Amino acid sequence: MDFMTAMDISASGLSAQRAQLNVISMNMANIQTTKTADGGPYQRKSVSFEATPVYSPFDQAMHDQLNRNLEGVKVLGVTADRRPFKTVYDPNHPDANDQGYVTYPDINVVEEMTNMMQAMRGYEANVQTIESAKRMFQKALMIGQG
């Protein structure tokens, strides 16, 4: 694996973690949203990841067998969670039904914060990988200078 491949893999990880952080922040921002443009309460969303080859088919043909199993991360999509909504008795709420219950999205703050910390750790790990590859590249250049 060369320096640029390590950076490509880490860059794909950074992009994937950024997408996950965006979805988590969207879930946190809409934790009390009872009515969306579609008419119902906000539906919690989650991100799906998929391994993706780092090299293009031409690059794969050019690299040796050891580098062929390298894969990055790609966001497969953002899907709506199928959890049932939670209902809270609040007859004074403008979106309350005839019995006085309001339907809220089932978003757990602790779960979202845990997912956010996991995404942040993944993001930091990818940044450290890029920094390490950059330092190794600079050291290799210094060897060439004598």
Automatic annotation (TrEMBL):
Span of domain Flagellar basal body rod protein N-terminal: 7-34
Subcellular location: Bacterial flagellum basal body
Domain Flagellar basal-body/hook protein C-terminal: 99-141
Record-linked InterPro entries: Flag_bb_rod_N, Flg_bb/hook_C_dom, FlgC
Entry GO CC: bacterial-type flagellum basal body, rod
GO BP terms: bacterial-type flagellum-dependent swarming motility
Keywords, sorted A to Z: Bacterial flagellum, Cell projection, Cilium, Flagellum
NCBIfam families reported in the protein's UniProt record: FlgC
UniProt subunit comment: The basal body constitutes a major portion of the flagellar organelle and consists of four rings (L,P,S, and M) mounted on a central rod. The rod consists of about 26 subunits of FlgG in the distal portion, and FlgB, FlgC and FlgF are thought to build up the proximal portion of the rod with about 6 subunits each.
Similarity remark: Belongs to the flagella basal body rod proteins family.
UniProt name for this protein: Flagellar basal-body rod protein FlgC
Native source organism of the sequence: Pseudodesulfovibrio indicus
Organism taxonomic ancestry: Bacteria, Pseudomonadati, Thermodesulfobacteriota, Desulfovibrionia, Desulfovibrionales
